[in-house]
Structures are given as structure tokens and as C-alpha cells.
């Protein structure tokens, strides 16, 4: 079949790829397009990248958990998918709510990048090395709680904005340090700003960190056939585990949660954590299960942590 299968799939209209407009979101959309072009032997003009402004991009002055959580980065994009204004949407997996609108599904995952958090500071080589009372900027409840857990003396301040904005604020001296996903920095070619990387043993990433997921309409066979060729099964198994874990624990932005699934042969190793926002209490779990049942493993890990923490832990 060779190249003809691609052109048959594409018919006469370009495949429309929906994305947010940040530099990182565009880099992820371009990576998706490049993989599709290579997999199907297609030219760039067979694809159209459609930039969609989301509510989350417009709210820069307060924590997202106060204004509705994760769906803020996906709502407008999902509306465009449901209205057939785009054919697929490229997202950072960690921005995705655990429940999707009827008619939409996560239909492909790209190979996962490095999952670690990066520590960036002109003042110290590591988080442990920061002077007492240092100010660290982060918009992530998970990172804030984990910093507090390791360094209760540190002042953690709310820190919104895209990746470039956060790096600029650090340069201007508004904070002494910040933490960012290493995957995003790598995708933008900014590895050189990293001071050190945080080991996942003491700093579990967010569920889905480093993984690009693609959302499309259920039953859209043309798009599904296109995506099958770039789908990474290993990442899919890991994400299904992590998202099932998150779904049990509430899936909102209000609870500091970390989770990481890794595939070793035919086994999934999963580690999960929930913390009080001030880092004062933490519950951890480590468990294993067969790759054939990622959802079951994630769900049982979530249930076990919920049990450990008791009913009031997540509520407060």
C-alpha cells in the first residue's frame, strides 16, 4: 500500500489539529503532526494546526483550583472537537480531567518524555540547598505540598503563567527558585536552564506528567486510523493506571496528588502519594500488577490510599 493508504485516509481535506496557543502546546502539536507525516508519508499541507484560546489561558491571576480546575484548559478545545471544527486535539496528559465529555475519548498517546520535575534556581544547586526562608514559586498544589514536606521553612508562593513567564519572573528575582516539568523544558529546547532534577523517589510527578495525549471523536474512523500508527502502547498502559488512580481520589485540582506507573516486562509498578496542602501529612503506596489490567491496578491503589488517609483527609 505504501503512501496510498495515507492519501485514502486523508481524502481531500486536511486533518485539523486543535491546540492551545502557548509555545509548549504548539511544540506538542508540531511533534504530533511530524509523527503523523512520517507514519503516513504525508506532506505538511495535509494538516492544519488550529489554535484555540481556553479559559485557563486567560486566567493568570489566581490558582486554577479556585476557578474550576483542570477542565479550564480543555473545555473550549473539546467544544471544537464536538462541533467538528477540529479532528483531533493535542493535550498535556496532566491537564486532562479524568472524566471526558460524551462522544470524546483519548485515542492515542505519544511516547512519554522524562517524567521528573526540574529545580531551577540561581541561589542553590538543589531544593535542600536553598537558604532558610527562601521563596519558591509554583502554581501546582502537588509541588507546593512536596516542597513544604521536605522544607517546612520555605515560603511557597503562587506562580502562574506559561513556562516562559515563570522563567522570566525567576530571572527578575521575584522568587529564589521554581520547579517545572523537565519534559516541557526538553520539548522547548530549554534543558540548559535546569539547575538539578528531582528524583521520583522523593518527588513523585503529577499523574500524566511528560505524556502527550490525543483526544478525538468516538466513531471518527478516519482519524482513529491515522492515530493508530503513532500510538505508544507502553505510555497508554502507564497513563491508564495513573488516571484510574486519580479518578478514585477525586481528580480535581484541590488535593496534592502524585502518581507514577512504570512498565517492567509484563508488570506495572505503581507508586502514588497524597499530601495535605501544607505538607504536614502524607500517605504513600507502592504496588504492582499485570499490564493486562492497568485500570484495576490504578483503582485499587487509589482505594487503598483513600482508606489509609480516612474520610476527612481529602475533604479539608
UniProtKB/TrEMBL annotation:
<dbReference type="GO" id="GO:0004418">
    <property type="term" value="F:hydroxymethylbilane synthase activity"/>
</dbReference>
<dbReference type="InterPro" id="IPR036803">
    <property type="entry name" value="Porphobilinogen_deaminase_C_sf"/>
</dbReference>
<dbReference type="Pfam" id="PF03900">
    <property type="entry name" value="Porphobil_deamC"/>
</dbReference>
<feature type="modified residue" description="S-(dipyrrolylmethanemethyl)cysteine">
    <location>
        <position position="253"/>
    </location>
</feature>
<feature type="domain" description="Porphobilinogen deaminase C-terminal">
    <location>
        <begin position="240"/>
        <end position="306"/>
    </location>
</feature>
<feature type="region of interest" description="Disordered">
    <location>
        <begin position="281"/>
        <end position="303"/>
    </location>
</feature>
<comment type="similarity">
    <text>Belongs to the HMBS family.</text>
</comment>
<dbReference type="InterPro" id="IPR022419">
    <property type="entry name" value="Porphobilin_deaminase_cofac_BS"/>
</dbReference>
<keyword id="KW-0627">Porphyrin biosynthesis</keyword>
<feature type="domain" description="Porphobilinogen deaminase N-terminal">
    <location>
        <begin position="15"/>
        <end position="223"/>
    </location>
</feature>
<keyword id="KW-0808">Transferase</keyword>
<comment type="subunit">
    <text>Monomer.</text>
</comment>
<dbReference type="GO" id="GO:0006782">
    <property type="term" value="P:protoporphyrinogen IX biosynthetic process"/>
</dbReference>
<dbReference type="InterPro" id="IPR022417">
    <property type="entry name" value="Porphobilin_deaminase_N"/>
</dbReference>
<dbReference type="Pfam" id="PF01379">
    <property type="entry name" value="Porphobil_deam"/>
</dbReference>
<comment type="pathway">
    <text>Porphyrin-containing compound metabolism; protoporphyrin-IX biosynthesis; coproporphyrinogen-III from 5-aminolevulinate: step 2/4.</text>
</comment>
<dbReference type="GO" id="GO:0005737">
    <property type="term" value="C:cytoplasm"/>
</dbReference>
<protein>
    <recommendedName>
        <fullName>Porphobilinogen deaminase</fullName>
        <ecNumber>2.5.1.61</ecNumber>
    </recommendedName>
</protein>
<dbReference type="InterPro" id="IPR000860">
    <property type="entry name" value="HemC"/>
</dbReference>
<comment type="function">
    <text>Tetrapolymerization of the monopyrrole PBG into the hydroxymethylbilane pre-uroporphyrinogen in several discrete steps.</text>
</comment>
<dbReference type="InterPro" id="IPR022418">
    <property type="entry name" value="Porphobilinogen_deaminase_C"/>
</dbReference>
Amino acid at each position: 500500500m505504501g503512501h496510498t493508504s495515507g492519501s485514502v485516509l486523508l481524502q481531500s481535506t486536511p486533518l485539523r489539529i486543535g491546540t492551545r496557543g502557548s509555545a509548549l502546546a504548539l511544540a506538542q502539536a508540531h511533534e504530533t503532526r511530524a509523527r503523523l507525516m512520517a507514519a503516513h508519508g504525508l506532506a505538511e499541507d495535509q494538516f492544519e494546526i488550529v489554535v484555540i484560546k481556553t479559559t485557563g489561558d486567560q486566567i493568570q491571576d489566581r490558582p486554577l483550583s479556585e476557578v474550576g480546575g483542570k477542565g479550564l484548559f480543555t473545555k473550549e478545545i473539546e467544544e471544537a472537537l464536538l462541533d467538528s471544527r477540529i479532528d483531533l486535539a493535542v493535550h498535556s496528559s496532566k491537564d486532562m480531567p479524568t472524566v471526558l465529555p460524551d462522544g470524546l475519548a483519548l485515542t492515542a498517546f505519544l511516547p512519554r518524555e522524562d517524567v521528573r520535575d526540574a529545580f531551577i534556581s540561581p541561589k542553590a544547586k538543589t531544593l535542600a540547598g536553598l537558604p532558610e526562608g527562601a521563596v519558591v514559586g509554583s502554581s501546582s498544589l502537588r509541588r507546593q505540598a512536596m516542597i513544604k514536606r521536605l522544607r517546612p521553612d520555605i515560603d511557597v508562593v503562587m506562580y502562574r503563567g506559561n513556562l516562559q513567564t515563570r522563567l522570566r519572573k525567576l530571572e527578575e528575582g521575584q522568587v529564589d527558585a521554581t520547579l517545572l516539568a523537565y519534559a516541557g523544558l526538553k520539548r522547548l529546547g530549554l534543558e540548559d536552564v535546569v539547575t538539578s532534577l528531582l528524583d521520583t523517589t522523593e518527588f513523585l510527578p503529577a499523574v500524566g506528567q511528560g505524556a502527550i495525549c490525543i483526544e478525538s471523536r468516538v466513531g471518527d474512523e478516519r482519524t482513529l486510523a491515522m492515530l493508530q500508527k503513532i500510538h505508544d502502547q507502553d505510555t497508554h498502559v502507564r497513563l491508564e493506571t495513573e488516571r484510574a488512580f486519580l479518578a478514585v481520589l477525586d481528580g480535581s485540582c484541590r488535593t496534592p496528588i502524585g502518581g507514577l506507573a512504570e512498565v517492567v516486562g509484563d508488570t506495572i509498578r505503581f507508586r502514588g502519594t497524597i499530601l495535605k496542602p501544607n505538607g504536614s501529612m502524607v500517605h504513600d503506596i507502592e504496588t504492582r500488577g499485570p499490564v493486562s489490567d492497568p485500570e484495576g491496578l490504578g483503582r485499587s491503589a487509589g482505594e487503598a490510599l483513600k482508606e489509609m488517609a480516612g474520610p476527612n483527609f481529602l475533604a479539608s
